[in-house]
Amino acid sequence: MTNVIETRGLVKRYGDLTAVDHVDIAVPQGTFFGLLGPNGAGKTTTLELIEGIREPDEGEALIFGEKVWPRNRALLPRIGVQLQASAFFERLTVAEQLRCFAELYAVPLTRIDRMIELVGLEDKRTVRTEDLSGGQKQRLSIACSLIHDPEIVFLDEPTAALDPQARRNLWDVLRAINAEGRTVVLTTHYMDEAEILCDQIAIIDRGKILTTDTPRNLITGLGAAYRILLSEGAVSEEEANRLPGVESASLDNGTLALTTHEPSPVLTALAERDALHGLQVTSATLEDVFLTLTGREYRA
Question: Which single residue of 33, 71, 82, 126 could bond 145 by disulfide (Cβ 3.0 to 4.6 Å)?
Fold first, then answer.
């Protein structure tokens, strides 16, 4: 597949701080790409370098094979950008906001209705932006970034501070954007979000890319054990430790937890003992990968 975004040895310094440290990224066309990292890892700065908002100190970023810096105005109609903090024109309705962006980009006004429908704001089209909820403002911000029908969309923490329902609704919007053939680049602190939405993920910390792969490969590569949880009394702790494939078994607060790297023989043995009622199986997640690579210490 053709790479529509590439960075080569990208570096950005602020005094003694190297915020982006020789970053190499390649994003194929049509990919939903996630950039994950702790606070201050360099995610937003990396996006701003790729978008052409900031000048790199070293290296280069390319979109569609063209350098983005010096500021490449020819690329602007082909990309859409949703920043961490969005500001709207005061006292304008949803439809009026989108009309302003449509006229700035000189696109047909018919795009307004299409965008309102895409982000699910049909019943809010005459509502002023200051009266929208947080989730509705985020959806409007995404609609503004899409009004000119860009081929690539950059989304910097679009679901930050949203409640679970608003987040899930926005996920549907993001899936629809990608399903239309657009390349989507996302930063987020929500590991479940990245695991569900992204085709490919890069994890960045202290300005360096630590790894890049699919969510499934990252999780599988961790090699973490499965945990099988049973209600107390399903089998005894002693018997559980003798089951084929079980590496350890412990009883805590009425739950028997079995650890194994090979769940199939364990589940077969439990089925033979009619001990599957209420059983739960948990495996490693992208959050486990993230914490293993970046550490568990608190980052302000």
Answer: 82
